[in-house]
Design goal:
Blueprint (H helix, E strand, L loop, with lengths): L1 H29 L2 H30 L4 H31 L2 H30 L1
Amino acid sequence: MFEISLLVTALLFGGMVFYSFSFAAVVFNALSPETAGPLIRRAFPHFYLFVLVSSAVAASIAFAFDPVSGAILIAIAITKILARQVLMPAINTATDAGSKTRFKVLHSLSVVITLAHSGQAFETTIAKGL
């Protein structure tokens, strides 16, 4: 079970890094803003769901042998629920309203949360792998 938790946590970390630094960047560089924006908006709920499910699965397994890692992973899942259900709609509303300042603040918060999640998933993966 340890190995499964480790693999799921590594998948979580890899997925977050890939989406944040590869997929989103490529979409905005390859497509016009009019096309890229709606595509990213449709992709984000799936990304958030991926993070939520994989962190919850890893947490449920990790609790059996590493309660600290389990707690960290469940915290990622819970905060991702809030980000998906509260923060993401607020970002979309700010975008639709043309409120650039509000968008920048909310988007920056989203980025900080994702970076924190990535860092914690990486640290948890390394801690469990050693």
